[in-house]
Amino acid sequence: MLTGQFLETPVWGLPIVVYPFLSGLVAGSFIIASLSHAFHMKKFEPLAKLAAIVSFAMLLTAALAPLFDALQPSRAIWELYFRDHFPYSPLGVFIIVWSTYVALMLFELFYVFRPSNVERSRQDDFKGRLAKFFTFGKTDLSEEALKKDKKALTVISSIGIALAFIFHGYVGFLFGAIKARALWSNPLIPPVFIVSAIVSGIALVTLLYIVGFTFYSKKNKVDTGILSALSKYLLAAVLVDIFFNIIEWLYTVKAYASRDVYDGWMMVFGSGGPLRANYIYQILFGLLIPAALLISSKVRKSKGWGVLVSLLVLTGVYEMRFNAVMGPQLQAKIAQGSLVFHPSWTGYNGILTCAGLFGIGLTLIFVLGYIFGWEDEHVEPASITEN
User: Fold this and answer.
1) Where do the domains of the chain lie, and which CATH numbers do they carry?
2) I want to staple 140 with a disulfide (CB 3.0 to 4.6 A). Which of 110, 132, 145, 252 is the partner?
3) What is the pLDDT of residues 293-345, one digit of tens each?
4) Reported pTM
């Protein structure tokens, strides 16, 4: 009898793996950007601009991933914005949430960078003219104007945190609501996705903070206090993620799970399963080793260890996304055994396509950083209102 790998193939490929990974970075980095605005944690103010840029760049890039998977991406605008499929289609909910998030992030960027754009607009060069454009004529740097900016950022950040949970939580909801695949029909998927999003967002901001302030900063200094605080939040998030992974594993134990769930999990992630090594990497290198390292205060204050831990966490979260998207599809539906997924290097569903998505995201971060300036710049309130 033919095995599953000869009779069936996975429907969703690598772009659908990359999409929840990038959208998780959006949610996690936005929360870091909001710590100084919504929760008034002043020690995180130097990170606000960097985290906002990362969140916006990942937000724009994440939307490209499903388009790469679509057979006719040129029809996206019509299908998403002009077809009457809301509220019947989850995709209709997505486009509303994503569009709202983009609008919110534009307001966030305006208020976060307005003082520095006003200062930079006085320069008679390309960046100065660009900064003048992004002030939209609002050049008031008085104490009252800056207080209004802070109030606006508090409101925007508070709304944005809720929207971040909705934006990424709905991805987990989509998978959890699919009854056709036993390993997807799991109510734990939404909270697991949200927690891992926070983990990956903190890790990415930590990585870019260390690299950026070490090699691309005028100050050329990484504040060990900020690094230690970020690492503590990362440790807390990783521990919560470990807890949810334990609960999710218990959900697949034979005594608790249905026959389809148990057989499917053992077939894909058990001994000899096609994703056994991926699952071990996700748990061991993505969660357990980073948690053990972050317990040490020396590690939390070290730039080298910070880079290593961030990379381990980010690759571990990517493996979690890969396992969550591909794993249930490798459980054969009409044959024996499990399916085998071999992604091609080229094509819309290929490895190079997904590498290009990551390249677009990093490029956007550097472009936005060049345009707006991602370093914290202290701006004194002006004694008079400028016009």
Assistant:
1) 10-372 (1.20.1630.10)
2) 145
3) 999 999 999 999 999 999 999 999 999 999 998 888 888 777 667 777 888 88
4) 0.88
